[in-house]
Design goal:
By secondary structure, the chain is of the alpha+beta class. The chain contains 25 helices and 24 strands. The strands form 4 sheets. Strands 5, 6, 7, 8, 9, 10 and 11 form a 7-stranded antiparallel sheet that branches. It has a 7-stranded mixed sheet with strand order 12-24-23-22-13-20-21, sandwiched between helices. Strands 14-19-18-17-16-15 form a 6-stranded antiparallel sheet, with helices on both faces. The longest helix is centred in the C-terminal third of the chain and has 36 residues, at about 635-670.
Length: about 700
C-alpha cells in the first residue's frame, strides 16, 4: 500500500482512488483550494475532498496512480497556495451576494392578494407558484439529505394546497421566507463587517527606481506597485506582493498564509508570498503578482472559512433538529391514524423544532460577532466565541499586553570611560535603526532626541529572540539580552553585577551592549503598566476565570512585583520566546482551557497552540493573523469585554434552545390533538421562530469603543 507521512492509500479500483491526506488536518486549507492543486493531470475526471475525514477521492479514466502520488508526495501549503494564486486568483472563492427580498415580496404579495381573488383555480395557481420554490427545495433535500425540516415545511404547504386551504399555505410560506430573510441579512452584515475589518493593511512599500541615473529607494502606495518593480522589504515588515527574491536573505514567517509557525529561510531565487512577514534580514523582490492578484486575497477566504465554520453548539443543534424531524413526521402519522383528518396532519407538519434550532443559534453568533466588531473586537467565527466561553485560564504576555508596549529610554550607562553615554547610544541606535522592535524603536527615538550621529558599521545580523550583531572598527558589536551576550557570546558580567542588579531591582528593562569581548554598557528602558490592567484581571475572575498567568522574559523579582500589582495568580519569568508555546501546551495537556493574549512575532506559536488566541491592536501582523480574536482598539479591558460577550452569547443561545423546545412541544401537542388549525399552527410556530430570531438579532450588550 502506498504510504508516507503526507498520504496513505485507503482504497483502490480501476476507476477510483481514495487517499488519506495529512495536509487536510491544517485548519487553513480548504476543499476548493486543494481540488485545484491537482488540475492538469491527464486522465483525472473529478476530485472530491472530505476535510472532516481528511480524505481525497480521485475518479480516473486511466491508470494515473503514479502521477497522483507524485503530486501528493510534493504537496505543501505553500505550493497549494501558489497554484491558486497563479492560476485562479481568489475571486470565485468569495461570495459577495446580498440577501434577496424577491422570495419574501412574492410570498407576501400572494398572501395579501389571496382573499381578494374569488376564483378557486386562480387561487390555486397563484399559491402553487408562490410556494413552488419551497416545495422544490424540500423535495431536493429529501433525496439528497433525507428527512429534514425543509421537507416537513414543504409537505405541510403541499397538503394545505391540495386541501385548498390556500390561506394556511400562503401564511406558512410568507413567514418562512421572512425568517430566512432575517437570518440571511444578519449573517451578511456580520460577515461583511469582518471582511472589512480583516483586510490586509499594507498601504505603502519601498521600491527601487532610477532617478537621474542613480538607483534610489522610494516609498509608494502599495496599490501603485507594478509587475516588474523591485520591492525592498526589511525586518518586521509585511511583504506586500508575490514574487521572487533577486538579492538578499531573510527569515520569513508564513503563518498568516499557510499556518506554519516556524520561519522559513528565503534567499535569491526563492518565491515569497504577500501577507507573510519578515522576521529578519533584508531582501529585494521582483514583483510577479500585485494588487488584487496577490495571495493576500487568500486571507479573505480563510476568514470566510472561519466565519462559516460551525461551533460544536451549532452542530449539536443541527443534529438534534434533524433527529426530531422523524418524531414530527411520526406524530403526524399517528394523528392521521386516529383522526383520519388530513387537516390535522397538515397542522402537525407545520410545527417542528428544526426551524428555530437551526436558525436562531447561527444568528445569535453572527450578531455577537457583528456587535463585537463595532465595539473594536474582531472575533473570527462562532468557534472562537465558544472557545472564549469555555476558557478558564488566561495567559498574558507582559510587554505590549499588560504594559503599554511603548518603551522609553530612561538611562544610559557606560562601563568604559572612553565611551560617553551619547556615543554608546549612537552606536546602539546605528545598529538597531532598521530593526522594527519596540526596544530598537525606543533607542533610536532617544538617540534622535540627543542629536543622533550615525556610526558606520558592517552588515547587521539579526538573531531572533537574542539581539543583533555587527562590526565597528574591526571589533564585534553585540546588542541584546543578557543570555545572548553572557551565555552565547561569552562576555563576562561579573565586574558590573552589583550595578546591573540595582537597575533590575528598580524595575528597568535592560539592553546590553558588548564591544570587542567586553560589556560596554547598558541602556535602561521602562514600560508602564496599563492603567486598567488590574480592573481587567478582576473582571475576568468575576466571569469565572480560575487562573491568570503572566509570561515574561523579565527577572523573577520584577515579574512578581508586577503580578502582585495587577492581581495575576501565576508567573513564569526569565523565559525565552520559544518557551511560551510549550507552557501553553503543557497547561492544555492538564485539561485547562487556555486563552493566550499576546502581541509580538514570537507570540504566534503560543497564539496558535492555545484553545483561543487573542492579539493586541498594536501587535505584529503575524499575531493578528494567527489569533482567533483580534483587538482593534488599544485597550486591555477589551479582553474582558470579549469574555463577557462570549458568556452572555452562550447564555442567550441556551435560553433560545430551551424556549424552542418548550414552546414548540406545546404547539405540536395542540396540533396533534386537533386544537389548532394549520393556519393557527403556522402562525404560532413561525411566529415563535421569528421571535427567537429577533431575540438573537438583538443579541447581548457590549461596551462601545
Amino acid at each position: 500500500m502506498s504510504s508516507n507521512e503526507k498520504f496513505s492509500l485507503v482504497h483502490e479500483t480501476s476507476k477510483r482512488l481514495r487517499y488519506k491526506v495529512s495536509i487536510l488536518k491544517n485548519k487553513n486549507i480548504d476543499e476548493n483550494v486543494l481540488i485545484h492543486y491537482f488540475d492538469g493531470i491527464e486522465g483525472l475526471n473529478t476530485v472530491r475532498v472530505n476535510k472532516i475525514a481528511a480524505s481525497v477521492v480521485f475518479n480516473i479514466t486511466k491508470n494515473i496512480k503514479n502521477d497522483i502520488e507524485d503530486k501528493l508526495t510534493n504537496i505543501s501549503l505553500e505550493k497549494v497556495l501558489s497554484k491558486i494564486t497563479t492560476d485562479l486568483g481568489c475571486t470565485p472563492c468569495i461570495d459577495e451576494g446580498k440577501p434577496s427580498l424577491k422570495g419574501l415580496v412574492r410570498a407576501g404579495a400572494i398572501l395579501a392578494a389571496e382573499p381578494l381573488v374569488s376564483n378557486t383555480n386562480v387561487k390555486a395557481a397563484l399559491t402553487t407558484a408562490a410556494c413552488m420554490p419551497l416545495i422544490i427545495d424540500g423535495t431536493k433535500e429529501l433525496f439528497e439529505e433525507g428527512l429534514t425540516s425543509k421537507f416537513l415545511e414543504a409537505s405541510a404547504v403541499a397538503i394545505s394546497i391540495v386541501r385548498k386551504d390556500f390561506l394556511a399555505a400562503n401564511s406558512a410560506n410568507a413567514m418562512l421566507e421572512l425568517g430566512e430573510y432575517i437570518e440571511e441579512t444578519t449573517v451578511h452584515k456580520s460577515d461583511d463587517l469582518l471582511k472589512q475589518l480583516a483586510k490586509p493593511n499594507v498601504e505603502e512599500a519601498w521600491i527601487e527606481t532610477d532617478i537621474d541615473g542613480k538607483t534610489t529607494e522610494i516609498l509608494i502606495k502599495t496599490k501603485d506597485i507594478e509587475i516588474g518593480n523591485i520591492v525592498v522589504v526589511g525586518a518586521g515588515s509585511t511583504i506586500p506582493i508575490d514574487g521572487h527574491i533577486v538579492s538578499g536573505e531573510a527569515s520569513v514567517n508564513q503563518v498568516s498564509m499557510t499556518g506554519e509557525a516556524e520561519p522559513i529561510k528565503k534567499q535569491r531565487g526563492d518565491r515569497v508570498i504577500s501577507g507573510t512577514v519578515m522576521e529578519e534580514g533584508r531582501i529585494k523582490i521582483w514583483a510577479e503578482h500585485v494588487g488584487s492578484d496577490t495571495a493576500t486575497q487568500r486571507i479573505k477566504h480563510y476568514i470566510e472559512n472561519s466565519l462559516n465554520e460551525k461551533s460544536s453548539v451549532q452542530l449539536k443543534a443541527t443534529k438534534l433538529a434533524d433527529k426530531l424531524v422523524p418524531v414530527t413526521l411520526g406524530l403526524a402519522g399517528v394523528s392521521y391514524v386516529f383522526s383520519r383528518d388530513f387537516e390535522r396532519v397538515a397542522s402537525v407538519l407545520q410545527a417542528d423544532y428544526s426551524c428555530a434550532l437551526k436558525l436562531a443559534t447561527p444568528v445569535a453568533f453572527k450578531t455577537a460577532i457583528s456587535k463585537a466588531g463595532q465595539a473594536g473586537i474582531m472575533i473570527k467565527g462562532a468557534k472562537a466565541i465558544e472557545a472564549l466561553h469555555s476558557a478558564d485560564t488566561f495567559i498574558f504576555d507582559k510587554t505590549g499586553t499588560l504594559t503599554e508596549g511603548e518603551l522609553e529610554v530612561v538611562n544610559v550607562t557606560s562601563f568604559d570611560d572612553k565611551w560617553s553615554e551619547d556615543e554608546l547610544l549612537n552606536l546602539t541606535a546605528s545598529t538597531e535603526e532598521h530593526y522594527f522592535h519596540p526596544v530598537a524603536e525606543a533607542v533610536v527615538k532617544a538617540a534622535k532626541k540627543r542629536g543622533f550621529v550615525h556610526m558606520h558599521h558592517e552588515e547587521v545580523e539579526f538573531i531572533v529572540a537574542h539581539g543583533v550583531k555587527t562590526q565597528v572598527n574591526g571589533k564585534n558589536v553585540l546588542i541584546g539580552s543578557r543570555h545572548f551576550l553572557e551565555e552565547d557570546e561569552g562576555i563576562s558580567f561579573k565586574k558590573h553585577k552589583i550595578q546591573i542588579d540595582e537597575m533590575l531591582n528598580n524595575g528597568f528593562t535592560l539592553l546590553y551592549v558588548g564591544y570587542g569581548k567586553k560589556l560596554l554598557g547598558t541602556i535602561s528602558l521602562e514600560d508602564r503598566l496599563r492603567s486598567n490592567t488590574r480592573k481587567t484581571i478582576e473582571r475576568l475572575k468575576k466571569l469565572g476565570v480560575k487562573n491568570t498567568i503572566m509570561l515574561t522574559g523579565d527577572t523573577k523579582e520584577r515579574a512578581d512585583k508586577i503580578a502582585k500589582e495587577v492581581g495575576i495568580d501565576t508567573v513564569y519569568a526569565s523565559l525565552l520566546p520559544t518557551q511560551k508555546a510549550s507552557i501553553v501546551k503543557q497547561l492544555m495537556s492538564e485539561g485547562k482551557k487556555v486563552a493566550f493574549i499576546g502581541d509580538g512575532i514570537n507570540d504566534a506559536p503560543a497564539l496558535i497552540s492555545a484553545h483561543v488566541g487573542i492579539s493586541m491592536s498594536k501587535g505584529a501582523d503575524i499575531a493578528k493573523a494567527t489569533a482567533d480574536v483580534s483587538l482593534l482598539k488599544d485597550d486591555i479591558e477589551a479582553v474582558a469585554d470579549a469574555k463577557e460577550l462570549a458568556e452572555n452569547t452562550m447564555k442567550l443561545i441556551n435560553n433560545n434552545f430551551n424556549a424552542t423546545v418548550g414552546i414548540n412541544s406545546v404547539i405540536l401537542a395542540g396540533a396533534a390533538f386537533g386544537f389548532f388549525t394549520p393556519i393557527t399552527t403556522a402562525v404560532l410556530h413561525n411566529g415563535t421562530t421569528i421571535g427567537l430570531l429577533l431575540n438573537s438579532m438583538r443579541g447581548v450588550k457590549i461596551k462601545k469603543a
